[in-house]
Sequence to fold (250 residues):
Amino acid sequence: MIFIYQIRSLEHKTEACPDLMCPMCSQQGGVHITVRQRYVWWLGPMLPSGKYGIAWCERCGDRILGVKWSPELTRRYKEIRSTTKTPLRLWRGMIVIFSLFAAIVLAALFFGSRHQAKAAADEKEKQEYITNPAPGDIYRANNGGRMYKIDETSATTVDNIYALYKVVRVSGDSVFVVQGNAQRVGTAENPVNPYIDGFWDELEKETTAFGSKEIAISHASMIKYGYFSRLIKEEGDTPGTISSIVRSEK
Fold:
């Protein structure tokens, strides 16, 4: 991250000192002392540094170098500087930065709490649906299967593949579901890539047709683990997670 800032200088005051002799031209009546102060400008003035002085003579037109300052000139400068205060406006940028930082923190806390509250509400709703399954519920669940993931040059098998299942009836510990016809499976000859078709993005808008073959899954396993576990196991079958549930009457 790059920050672009400026170093600026504020002229507080300039006072004529007609009683002082210019150490450059040895004449009186032309010496002036200016008190200045540097500060950083980034989103406003901030970080003022210590004050410094410039002395010059209008008679000879020269700036009086610091090494040429006489003791009287130095004493007069210190007197003028002691009555010069740093204005609060030179800290305005710090107030702006603090306000922006505070606003960002408060916004992050606000939206973070809202996100946590929504996640907690969604999880509570999901657990309620798992505990009390109803016909018409649609599960997006891992079926323990395997499919081919396609890229530009090859097809590789991947696990953790999801499909849709609709509850048709509940009997004892058995929840009977039918599988959506759009389950993403494939072969090397006829691959399907769900990673680019966005099929699972919005379950609420899903219009997939469902098959007629009923699959019995364990309600106890759903309640205890949140798993999609077939009561009648198939070869290579492993329980999968139920990631989301939509109730049809909503």
About this structure: The two ends are 47 Å apart (CA to CA). Residues 124 and 167 are 19 Å apart (CA to CA). Confidence is low (pLDDT under 50) at residues 185-205. The first helix runs from residue 71 to 82.
